[in-house]
Design brief:
Two copies of one chain form a homodimer.
Chain A: E1 2-6, E2 10-15, E3 18-23, H1 24-29, E4 56-62, E5 66-72, E6 77-81, H2 82-88, E7 131-133, H3 134-139, H4 141-153, E8 156-160, H5 168-174, E9 188-190, E10 206-209, E11 221-228, E12 236-240, H6 241-251, H7 253-261, E13 263-269, E14 274-280, E15 282-284, E16 290-293, H8 307-324, E17 330-333, E18 340-344, E19 348-352, E20 365-371, H9 373-389
Parallel strand pairs in A: 7-8
Antiparallel strand pairs in A: 1-2, 2-3, 4-5, 5-6, 8-18, 9-20, 10-19, 11-18, 11-20, 12-17, 12-19, 13-14, 15-16
């Protein structure tokens, strides 16, 4: 049952007992007619300045499942499905001032779209642990959907049974998106090197960190594919940085504010590369929601600023580091040959324990590459579309 | 002349008459000794939690060009070059509360690192226009430095004389960085197509916009290489979005605040791709400085929120769009075959006028690709290092 009401500047509809009120300019900008949306695409043809200034509504005509609106000053007509209007209606019918909420609920990258976890929530021996078999992932869309959804919701998935052949990590990346090539190449080998330019290429322990904070844009997905495990040690740890950030905000809002409000400078230098980026350790959306963490003391440069600002930063930074290091946060895994970890590098910190190098053994060898979340999310959406229509 | 003073928590130095005061924890975190920085790299070995809690200074010994500091509780010693201390000192010696300024001056991506412009500032027939000859760019490091600096400082450079052969745009990208592959491929053809999935592939005019706002991370560099010009029309326009944002902030701070504070949803859908990103039209650093613009009504989805929030957004959005469309902002170019435009897609909007399709003529044909600013900045830094040492 639809009732239409009308003022000069908006449209009021009652759909299933809800009173919905739509601004005229919003309706006009979302007109789905072929003069407004390019046929065969989802693209609007008109820019906001192509719309007459002072758009108003002069007439609204109701049909069973649609409403046709006529706009002043140019008599343009737009027909909207009732279901579309109900689904996209402004959140209040009253027009009460609630302007802080525009755009609030659509950010798939922010904490509200995620399931936050502690290590115990995802213990590897339980069904809650996000794992998938590579052959099933390749052959069964439902399995691939579960795996890719885990990356978006939990921040990672472990694919098992990926052939432990060099270069296969690129096939894994191609299964959901596009490789982000960097100065490290399309893929990189992580093993002990005689003259390492990076701590990754030693047998040292590396505490939880995100990769490449000195890059902007940072690679949003990282893959680590195990070709050979270490004899002893070399275990992988994962920490949910969004869960930790939420905990810091709850327990120490001042330190959270300092981490979110202070740009830190990260750098990487070798013979062929000089990278530097300046971003806060906790990145917030315009609505103040967590949408990224960067954590890597290795590559953090000397903080600039005032004496008081630097002192306040270090106090907060230590609190943040201690919270991230709480034992209950780190999920520990032992990657076996054929395991490939795919994780959200804007959210999940990764670590490894030190490992031994036995004389004569070929030693631990992983291959890694970077990719991006937008391509992964697109692949997931297309797979879901296929499952829905099949 | 160096004088050292000392409290339990900091070091005070007088260098050339300036009183400099350094927090103990900052000094300890920046210790350059081989136990703290991995030899052969710029990487710190220790995490912030590896440092003892309550770091203090027990002794400072001065030499001609260095200072050696001894820390409590573990008696670790760090030697700093006097010149390094002078260059990296906290901005105030007084310890006055100035905490808002930590990290403020290091963000190369924000407006303060840019030279903002109006069209008249960079007229194509003048020497102020950032152009470079491809052969000189390839052969002369100084020319390549000038060209890449123009992309970082002004937001674009026009390379002329790039062979008008398909695929060459990838060589241009490889000359400074790495291609960002997307659903459009490593490169894409921009020409009129019979069933276009994107307005780019028609002969329509396209108003100033940034590309791919529905991608996150957005590609930060775009290349457009002209293989064939249109018979008539098809001119390219460029607008400095950072200059426009600064003008909006000055003339209408409330609208600026709405553009920076409202996440908008951008989308792109075709048979193989579903992309969506949620970001504000003007992106600010934690310090409130402009560091990105997104502007593309074509791909903006229905804004969600309250009635009042949506209405306020549209009023501000129109002001922003009108300001971007001011005639003095748009620099107009006619790309000739062999011209390749390289621009910062987080800052510079691009546009084209409509063009004619003459019967029998092959028509306008550009090839484009995406890349990223971090790789470009790295290439520039390495070239500068080479010029300094030669």
């Amino acid at each position: 049952m639809v009732e239409t009401g009308l003022t000069h500047s908006d449209l009021e509809l009652t759909i299933d007992g809800r009173v919905l009120r739509f601004p005229a300019v919003w309706l006009r900008d979302n007109c789905p007619c072929p003069d407004c949306v390019a046929p065969g695409t989802t693209q609007k043809i008109n820019d906001i300045t192509d719309m007459p200034n002072g758009v108003a509504i002069t007439h609204a005509a109701r049909a069973d499942d649609s409403v046709t609106v006529t706009f002043a000053p140019d008599q343009h007509q737009a027909t909207f499905a009732r279901s579309w209007l109900a689904a996209h209606a402004p959140r209040d019918g009253s027009g009460a001032d609630n302007s802080k909420t525009a755009g609030v609920d659509a950010d798939d990258r922010a904490e509200d779209a995620k399931a936050l976890w502690l290590a115990a929530d995802l213990a590897p021996e339980t069904s809650r642990f996000p794992g998938a078999d590579w052959q099933r992932y390749l052959g069964e869309p439902a399995e691939r959907i579960r795996a890719l959804e885990a990356v978006l919701r939990l921040g990672f998935v472990l694919l098992r049974g990926v052939p432990a052949e060099p270069g296969t990590v690129l096939e894994v990346a191609a299964s959901f998106g596009f490789v982000r090539e960097t100065n490290y190449g399309r893929l990189f080998d992580i093993r002990v090197e005689p003259a390492p330019g990076n701590l990754a290429y030693t047998s040292r322990a590396i505490r939880p960190h995100t990769d490449n904070p000195y890059r902007d844009p940072v690679p949003t997905v990282q893959l680590l594919h195990c070709l050979r495990a270490a004899g002893q040690g070399g275990e992988t740890g994962l920490v949910d940085g969004f869960a930790a950030a939420a905990a810091l905000r709850a327990s120490d809002p001042a330190s959270f504010g300092t981490m979110a409000g202070t740009p830190a400078s990260f750098g990487y230098v070798d013979k062929e590369t000089v990278l530097r980026a300046c971003q806060p350790l906790i990145e917030l959306s315009p609505r103040g929601r967590v949408r990224g963490v960067r954590f890597n003391n290795r590559s953090m440069g000397p903080l600039r600023g005032s004496y008081a600002g630097i002192s306040a930063f270090y106090a907060a930074y230590r609190r943040w580091a201690e919270l991230l290091a709480e034992p209950g946060r780190q999920l520990n895994l032992r990657l076996a040959p054929g395991d490939c970890l795919v994780f959200d590098n804007t959210r999940v910190l990764h670590a490894r324990t030190a490992f031994s190098m036995s004389a004569g053994s070929p030693g631990r060898h992983l291959q890694g590459c970077y990719a991006d979340l937008d391509g992964l999310a697109s692949t997931l959406a297309i797979l879901k579309r296929g499952e829905e229509s099949s």
